[in-house]
Each structure stands twice: as structure tokens, then as C-alpha cells.
Design a protein that fits this description.
The chain is mainly α and 346 residues long. The chain has 15 helices and 2 strands. It is globular, with a radius of gyration of 21 Å.
Length: 346
């Protein structure tokens, strides 16, 4: 291996690591606020890329119909729960309609815009809106009624949600893979390395989103409310912070990050209905390296995972996934030895 090959591999590793960093941050965010190890994070990535691919062909994405079904189910559950709680049909109907409004608007826009063949950027924005709308609905349908359950129960639910979303992806997108066009097809030569415009976009968007997340948690009231929920759920609830709202907002952000990651990675690889699992799992490895609690740790862990994957693919391409996922074993061993063992306290 000479310097030019090492440079190319390093660039590929850091590029993939930027995507894994976003997914790792989303995994840490969801776990700290809701205690959910969100395995289906990768499905948002696949849904984002495949939704854009469907819009590129002028067809209405299957995610639109799935979104309407999920919204109707979530609205029904919310309406029934509110009716049982206060016995007021008017408030129950209002709560149900509140859940339906955003998915209905996004779905209507999608049905109208799909045959129009708008520009790539407009289709990308619409794809992000569609997939982002899934976040609160997934939380309402699968997790909200179980938010006080032990983490093991929530993990089992996550496995079920993963299989459901993967199966629905096969139903609505089919088994064929898609690769989206790049958002910027320029190329820049930096010595032995050729940097594509898509790579520049990946770095710029990832860095911008990380900075925006930091500003959101540091400066905004809702961001501070999420931080308070992550530190002490009971204390936050006593201070008037709704755990339901915090969970829905967290899943909204996770879905947005997943959809955006799907658009970034779509032009660099062929995405299938089940591709999100491996991509999301690498983000999960980065989050585990960070102890599922540190955002800077997740960022550094993701870059490490990306670099290991790139060099592992060069030396032993058949075992690159094994090499990446083996990283998690010594990390868990070290954390287990340092933390000791105790019974689950909640």
C-alpha cells in the first residue's frame, strides 16, 4: 500500500464516517431521551433514498400510502386514549386531527408533485418531509404506551419495528435496488485524491447538522427540555415537561437525520429495501463506542468505524462487515469491566 492508496481509503472512510456519525448521534439522542435502542434507524435511511428514487421516476412513492395508514392508526390510538382519559369527544377528535394534519399535507403535496418531475432539490426536500413525518407516528404506535417499560422490553419492540419496516419496504419498493443521481457532480483533484462534489456535500451537510443540533440543545427551550428529560425523566415530568412530547420530538429528529442520511448516501451506493439495517448498525456501533451517552464520542466513534471499514475492505473485502462489527466486542468488554455489574434499577 502506497501513500496514494492510503489517501483514497482515508477519504472513503471519513466520508462514510460522516454518515455514520449522523446515525450515531440519532441513536444516542433517542436512547438518552427515551431509553429506546432504536434499531430501525437505518430503515429511515433506506426509506429516504428509495422515496427520492421513486420521485425521480415520476411515480408516487409507496411511503406516501404507508404514511397515511400510519397516520390514521396513530390518530385512532390517540383519539381513543384521550376519550378514555377525559371522556370528552371534542378533545379526543382535536387530538386525532392534530396528528393527521402534517402527514395529510405532506401526502397531498407528494401526490401532486410526483408526476410534475420537479428539480432534484425539490424532490429531495419532499422526500425528507415524507420520511420525517414517520418519526412521531412510529413513536406513537409502537413506543408511547410502553415508555415506562424496562429497556429490554423496548429493545424487543425495536426488533419488531425493524422487521415490520423492512417487510413494508419490500412491499412498497420491491426488491430492486436504486442509486440516486449526485447533487453536485463536480470533481476536484487534491494531489493523488479526487474529491467528488457529492463528498463535499456530505461533509458540509454533516458538519452543518451537527452544529445545528448543538445550537438547538444549547440555546432553544425545547432542546433544553430534551436534555432535562435525558438527565432525569421523572424530574423533567415533575417540572411540566411531557414525556410524550419529548419522545415524539426525539423520533421526529431521528427520522429527519435518517432521511437526510439516505439522500447523502444514495448517490454513492445502490440502496435496497433492506440496506438500511447494515448502515444503521454501523451507526449503532459508533454509538456503543460512545457508551450510548456521548455525542462527541459518537462522532469520533463513527469516524473510526468508517476508516476501519475502508481499510478492512481493502485488505479483506469479504470480511469487512465482520471486522467492523467485531470492534464492538472489546468495547463492551472494557466498559463491562470498568462499570461493574448491578441490578437494573428502572
Amino acid at each position: 500500500m502506497d501513500f496514494s492508496i492510503a489517501s483514497i481509503l482515508m477519504l472513503d472512510g471519513v466520508t462514510n464516517g460522516a454518515i455514520y456519525a449522523l446515525l450515531g448521534l440519532a441513536t444516542v439522542l433517542v436512547f438518552t431521551v427515551t431509553r429506546v435502542i432504536f434499531i430501525p434507524q437505518g430503515e429511515f435511511v433506506a426509506y429516504g433514498a428509495l422515496t427520492l428514487a421513486m420521485l425521480q421516476t415520476g411515480k408516487i412513492p409507496g411511503t406516501v400510502w404507508l404514511l397515511l395508514i400510519m397516520a390514521a392508526l396513530a390518530a385512532l390510538m390517540e383519539g381513543v386514549a384521550r376519550w378514555r382519559h377525559n371522556g370528552n369527544p371534542g378533545r379526543a377528535l382535536k387530538a386525532a386531527l392534530k396528528i393527521l394534519i402534517f402527514p395529510a399535507i405532506v401526502s397531498g403535496l407528494s401526490v401532486w408533485a410526483a408526476p410534475q418531475q420537479f428539480s432534484l432539490w425539490v424532490q429531495a426536500a419532499l422526500s425528507v418531509a415524507i420520511v420525517t413525518a414517520f418519526g412521531p407516528l412510529v413513536y406513537r404506535v409502537a413506543y408511547q404506551s410502553l415508555e415506562s417499560s424496562p429497556p429490554l422490553v423496548l429493545l424487543i419492540v425495536s426488533v419488531g419495528v425493524h422487521f415490520a419496516m423492512t417487510g413494508l419496504g419490500l412491499l412498497f419498493f420491491g426488491a430492486e435496488g436504486f442509486r440516486n443521481p449526485p447533487f453536485w457532480d463536480e470533481r476536484f483533484n487534491l494531489g493523488p485524491v479526487a474529491v467528488s462534489g457529492q463528498t463535499v456535500i456530505i461533509f458540509a451537510v454533516s458538519l452543518a447538522l451537527i452544529v445545528l443540533l448543538w445550537l438547538y440543545f444549547e440555546r432553544s427551550l425545547r432542546g433544553k427540555a430534551l436534555r432535562a428529560t435525558a438527565v432525569n425523566r421523572t424530574g423533567a415530568r415533575l417540572m411540566g415537561i411531557s414525556s410524550h412530547s419529548a419522545g415524539q420530538l426525539t423520533f421526529l429528529m431521528a427520522a429527519f437525520i435518517g432521511a437526510l442520511s439516505g439522500l447523502l448516501i444514495g448517490p454513492t451506493t445502490t440502496v435496497f429495501y433492506d440496506s438500511g439495517f447494515l448502515i444503521g448498525l454501523k451507526g449503532f456501533v459508533a454509538a456503543v463506542i460512545a457508551g450510548l451517552s456521548s455525542y462527541p464520542g459518537a462522532l469520533l466513534g463513527a469516524l473510526f468505524v468508517g476508516i476501519v471499514e475502508a481499510f478492512g475492505a481493502f485488505w479483506a473485502s469479504a470480511f469487512k462487515e465482520v471486522i467492523v462489527f467485531t470492534i464492538i466486542l472489546p468495547v463492551l468488554l472494557v466498559r463491562s469491566l470498568r462499570a461493574g455489574h448491578s441490578d437494573e434499577d428502572h
